[in-house]
Design brief:
Layout (H helix, E strand, L loop, with lengths): L1 H27 L6 H37 L14 H6 L7 H4 L1
Length: 103
């Protein structure tokens, strides 16, 4: 089970890294000469920055989850030490706290 999770997390990390690379390529394309087009591109840049930030956060969370799998602490609440419910981990695989401690 833990090897399967690590494999799933690793696949997702690779997808996210690809997304970040695509965002960097989009930024590298430069700006249009027209001022009105530049305004639209700036709005697009804000969206891309947000997507990149979210992807980087998820990459870090999944990397941390892999570390917890490796050291045997995956699925254990970091606050109370109780097991994190399987349903919670299905919804949020990188969860570090049980539902009671997360509130």
């Amino acid at each position: 089970m833990s090897e399967q999770l690590k494999s799933e997390f690793t696949k997702r990390i690779i997808e996210l890294q690809s997304r970040v690379s695509s965002i960097h390529e989009d930024f590298a394309d430069g700006r249009a000469a027209d001022w009105s087009e530049q305004a639209g591109e700036r709005e697009n840049d804000e969206v891309l920055n947000a997507l990149e930030s979210e992807a980087k956060i998820e990459i870090q969370q999944l990397s941390n989850a892999i570390t917890r799998i490796d050291n045997g602490s995956y699925g254990v609440c970091m606050d109370c030490g109780e097991e994190i419910a399987a349903k919670r981990l299905e919804v949020q695989p990188s969860a570090t706290k049980c539902i009671q401690c997360a509130d």
